[in-house]
Amino acid sequence: MASIGAGIANVICAIVLLAAGAIKLGHLSVFGQQITAYQIIPERLARVAGYVLPPIEVLLGLSMLFAPQLAAAAVFLFASFALAVGFNVLRGRTDLRCACFGVTGQHTISWAHVAGNAILALLATITFVGHHRPSFIAFQIGVSTLLVIALGAAWRAMAPPLQSGGNQKP
Question: What is the pTM of this model?
Answer without folding.
Answer: 0.81
